[in-house]
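Contributing new records

If you add data, match the layout below exactly. Sequence lines come first and carry their own label; structure lines follow with theirs. Keep one chain per record. Anything else will be rejected by the validation script.
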Amino acid sequence: MPEGHTIHRLAAEHREMFGGRVVRVESPQGRFSEGAARLDGRRLLEADAHGKHLLLGFEGERVLHVHLGIYGKVAFGGLPVPAPVGAVRLRLVGAGGYADLRGPNACELLEPGEVKVLHDRLGPDPLRADGDPERAWRRVRRSRTSIAALLMDQSVVAGPGNIYRAEVLFRQGVHPLVAGRDLGAGEWARIWADLVVLMAEGVRTGRIDTVRPEHMPEAMGRAPRVDGHGGEVYVYRRAGSGCLVCGSVVRAEVLVGRNLFWCPGCQPER
């Protein structure tokens, strides 16, 4: 599933291509025909992201909510607009090009009150100006749940996924199974600050790179990492390999249905 930086990039791409312009909207697949008809010919006023949720605001207080889920994808293209290929749930067409949405977990219109409900049920987003780490800390400090699980709970922190949670905990030397209530306020502040920096860099580059300059391939004389997510990482999907910092064997286990990665040397148990 795309992590939060990807959705913020999508919001920016929608603003650039369609922002302030009248947009033609259709559902070639037919599964969103009624909603598309209500948006067709309206001006796109804003494109926003909160965690893994994309919100496109049109004239008339009509808000399109998209959650890509595991299989959803958005493809942008220029003019002339080609005939739709495959199951295109939603197509937006503007003066400068088009965007096709395929396979989303959610593609729906929300009323203003429903938008507020969505924002209220999501935790603070490190990439949003209104992201409040203290709001998340109030949940974390009272919880018996592990910090690794809490970082994947979108009602606690919105946006981070499996890669960012593994990498930020490594970078801060926090064992993933430490309970939220056993984490120090300073540790939480550093985790949040690191998420802000790492995820903002992900928005800028379109990839997740978490390795510090001194541990990059050219600095260490090692081969670059080759992986589908396209970035240099410390522990994510590196189980069985040596830690880039201390040489310990990176470990993995399943936590709440997702693979969890950490270094026992750099992230010792409490």
